[in-house]
């Protein structure tokens, strides 16, 4: 059984489309301000395994403990995919993911 001490951090990917890009940007900026999470670029294209446009928030385990509940209450219909960072990208995305909203299929072929 794995222990949580193997988790170096978390990523939360906020998914959006052309109609919700401003909503997603505002959510990510607010989360970065409140929790000190590192906000990545607003990708208006699919990047990596992600099936929609997205913005990434990178958080420490301590930041994520407050960030995830906050996102769940403030996402206003946006789909969010979060996962731990353990060094095993395939398992982190395939086996350890957390969905807020409707789960979507990721393109895991990039990790093989």
Largest sheet geometry: 5 strands, antiparallel
CATH architecture annotation name of the domain at 27-103: 2-Layer Sandwich
Q: What's the CATH topology label of the domain at 27-103?
A: Alpha-Beta Plaits
Give the overall shape, derived from the CA principal axes.
Answer: globular
Along the chain, the helix and strand elements come as: EHEEHEHE
In the sheet with the most strands, the strands line up as: 2-3-1-4-5
Number of strands: 5
> Which CATH top level class of the domain at 27-103 fits?
Alpha Beta
| CATH superfamily annotation of the domain at 27-103 | DOPA-like domains
Content-based structural category? alpha+beta
Roughly what fraction of the amino acids lie in strands?
Answer: 25-35%
If helices are DSSP runs of H or I spanning 4 or more residues, what is the number of helices?
3
Describe this structure in words.
This protein has 112 residues and is of the alpha+beta class. The protein has a domain at 27-103: DOPA-like domains (Alpha-Beta Plaits, 2-Layer Sandwich). It has three helices and five strands. A five-stranded antiparallel sheet has the order 2-3-1-4-5. The longest helix is centred in the first third of the chain and has 15 residues, at 21-35. The chain starts with 8 loop residues before the first strand and ends in a 12-residue tail after the last strand. The mean pLDDT is 95.
Give a nutshell description of this structure.
It is built from 3 helices and 5 strands, in the order βαββαβαβ. By secondary structure, the chain is an alpha+beta fold. Strands 2-3-1-4-5 form a 5-stranded antiparallel beta sheet.
């Amino acid at each position: 059984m794995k222990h949580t001490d193997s988790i170096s951090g978390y990523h939360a990917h906020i998914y959006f489309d052309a109609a919700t890009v401003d909503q997603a940007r505002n959510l990510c900026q607010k989360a970065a301000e409140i929790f000190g999470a590192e906000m990545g670029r607003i990708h208006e294209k699919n990047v990596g395994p992600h099936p929609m446009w997205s913005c990434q928030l990178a958080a420490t385990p301590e930041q994520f403990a407050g960030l995830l509940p906050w996102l769940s209450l403030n996402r206003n219909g946006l789909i969010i995919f979060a996962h731990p960072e353990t060094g095993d990208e395939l398992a982190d995305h395939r086996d350890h993911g957390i969905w807020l909203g409707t789960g979507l299929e990721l393109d895991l072929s990039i990790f093989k």
